[in-house]
Specification:
Pfam families: ABC_tran, TOBE_2. Keywords: ATP-binding, Cell membrane, Ion transport, Iron, Iron transport, Membrane, Nucleotide-binding, Transport. This is Spermidine/putrescine ABC transporter ATPase. One of its GO terms (cellular component) is ATP-binding cassette (ABC) transporter complex. With about 350 residues, this protein is an alpha+beta fold. Helix content is about 20%, strand content about 35%. It folds into two domains: about 230 residues, P-loop containing nucleotide triphosphate hydrolases (Rossmann fold, 3-Layer(aba) Sandwich), CATH 3.40.50; about 120 residues, Nucleic acid-binding proteins (OB fold (Dihydrolipoamide Acetyltransferase, E2P)). The strands form four sheets. Strands 7-8-9-3-10-11 form a six-stranded mixed β-sheet, with helices on both faces. The structure holds adenosine-5'-triphosphate (ATP). The site of adenosine-5'-triphosphate has 11 residues, from helix 1.
C-alpha cells in the first residue's frame, strides 16, 4: 500500500548489465519534505537506481510510483518528461545559447515578472546575484553547476532526484551551496533522493540514509542510527576509520587484552570482530610499567607503543603498536596530542561504543 505522503516509492527494483546484477530487489520510499540519501561506494548501483526512477534506464523488474501513481511496472513505462521529477545529474548541461537567467527560467511557467522574481531569488540563494545576463561559457565550472542546480529547483518539483550534485564544487563553496539547496528543497516540501558516495555529505543532508552495497540496500535509518548502530563491520568502516580486535566467542564471552566482552548470540567457538572507532579509545600514561586501574565501563588497559602521531586540526591521530600481539590500533584525541614515537602509553576502550560482529 502507498500512503498519501509517499512521493517516491520503489518496490523490488532490479537491473542487470550483461548478466551481472547491478541493482537487486531494491525497495524504498521517500515522503514529501524528506531528504533520503542513497549512500555507498563507487559502483554499488546508486546511480542506476536513480536513473531508473528518472526514467532514463529501464528496470528488469519492479515498480516505481511517483505521487502514488505507477510510472513503471509490468504494463507502464512513462518517459522521463512525463514523470514530474526534477533532475540534477553529475553530467549536467546548461543551454549554451541561453543566458543564466534564461537557463534558470527554462522550465518556469507564468508571467515574465513572476519568472524574473523567482530567478533572482534563486540566484541570490546560491551567491550568483548579478549573473543573470551572463552566458554559461563565461562562468567557472562551479558557477555553472550552481546554475544547473537552481534550474532544476526553479519549477518547484515535487520530487527531486540528485546524483552527486555538489561533487564539482570546491570545499569552501560546497557547504554553503548544500545548505542553500537544502533550504530551498525543504521550503518547497519536495521529496528528495540524493545519491552520494560521501558519508559526510549524507550525514549533513539526509533525514534518512539508505546504505547500498553490491546492488542492495544493507541498512536504512536516520544518520544518527546508521552511524551509531552499524549493521556490520563494512557499514561501520564506511563512515570512519575503525579498529578491529579479533577474538573467539566461547560461552557468550570473548577474552581480549582489554578484558572479557559479553558476546551473546555469536556462534560458540566462532571468531568475532570487536570494532571500535578511533575516538572511542582512551589514552593514559605509563606509571613505571603500570597503567590505570581497570573499570567496568572500559575494562582493562593494554600497553601500546606509539608509532606515529599526526595533528589534523580538530584532533590528533595517534597510531600504536600493541604489545599483546603487535597489531596496530589508532586513537583520535581532541586537540593537540603528539607523543613521540616509541613512547609507551596505555589504551582503554569504551565498551558502550564497541560493536561485535562475526569475523569478516
Ligand atoms: N549502461 C551500462 N552498461 C553496462 N554497465 C553499466 C551501465 N551502467 C552502469 N553499469 C555498471 O553498473 C555498476 C553500477 O553502476 P552505478 O553507476 O549505478 O554505480 P554507482 O554506485 O552510482 O557508482 P558511482 O558512485 O561510481 O557513480 C558499475 O559497475 C557500472 O560499471
Amino acid at each position: 500500500m502507498t500512503s498519501s505522503s509517499e512521493r517516491i516509492e520503489i518496490q523490488g527494483l532490479s537491473r542487470s548489465f550483461s548478466g551481472r546484477a547491478v541493482v537487486s530487489d531494491v525497495s524504498l520510499q521517500v515522503a514529501a519534505g524528506q531528504v533520503m540519501c542513497l549512500l555507498g561506494p563507487s559502483g554499488c548501483g546508486k546511480s542506476t537506481t536513480l536513473r531508473m526512477i528518472a526514467g532514463v534506464e529501464t528496470p528488469d523488474q519492479g515498480r516505481i510510483l511517483i505521487d502514488g501513481q505507477p510510472v513503471f511496472d509490468a504494463g507502464v513505462n512513462l518517459p522521463p518528461e512525463a514523470r514530474g521529477v526534477g533532475l540534477m545529474f553529475q553530467d549536467f548541461a546548461l543551454f549554451p545559447h541561453l543566458t543564466v537567467a534564461g537557463n534558470v527560467a527554462f522550465g518556469l511557467v507564468g508571467d515574465k515578472a513572476t519568472k524574473l522574481r523567482r530567478v533572482e531569488e534563486l540566484l541570490e540563494k546560491v551567491g550568483l546575484s548579478g549573473f543573470g545576463s551572463k552566458h554559461p561559457h563565461e562562468l567557472s565550472g562551479g558557477e555553472q553547476q550552481r546554475v544547473a542546480l537552481i534550474r532544476a529547483l526553479a519549477p518547484k518539483p515535487r520530487v527531486m532526484l540528485m546524483d552527486e550534485p555538489f561533487s564539482g564544487l570546491d570545499n569552501r563553496l560546497r557547504d554553503g551551496i548544500r545548505d542553500a539547496t537544502l533550504e530551498v528543497l525543504k521550503a518547497e516540501g519536495a521529496a528528495v533522493l540524493l545519491v552520494t558516495h560521501e558519508p559526510e555529505e549524507a550525514m549533513r543532508m539526509a533525514d534518512e540514509i539508505a546504505l547500498m552495497r553490491g546492488g542492495q540496500i544493507v541498512q536504512r535509518g536516520a544518520p544518527y542510527n546508521i552511524y551509531n548502530a552499524p549493521v556490520d563491520r563494512a557499514a561501520a568502516a564506511f563512515f570512519s576509520d575503525i579498529n578491529v580486535i579479533r577474538g573467539r566467542s566461547t560461552g557468550a564471552l570473548t577474552e581480549t587484552p582489554f578484558g572479557a566482552f559479553l558476546t551473546p548470540g555469536h556462534l560458540d567457538g566462532g571468531e568475532v570482530d570487536i570494532v571500535i572507532r578511533p575516538q572511542h579509545l582512551k589514552i593514559d600514561f605509563d606509571r613505571a610499567g603500570r597503567g590505570p586501574n581497570p573499570t567496568v565501563s572500559e575494562g582493562s588497559p593494554a600497553r601500546g607503543i606509539v608509532q606515529r602521531a599526526r595533528y589534523l586540526g580538530h584532533a590528533s591521530l595517534v597510531e600504536f603498536r600493541m604489545e599483546f600481539d603487535g597489531s596496530i590500533l589508532t586513537a583520535s584525541v581532541p586537540g593537540v596530542f603528539l607523543p613521540k614515537p616509541d613512547t609507551v602509553l596505555w589504551l582503554m576502550i569504551r565498551r558502550d561504543r564497541c560493536y561485535v560482529f562475526p569475523a569478516a
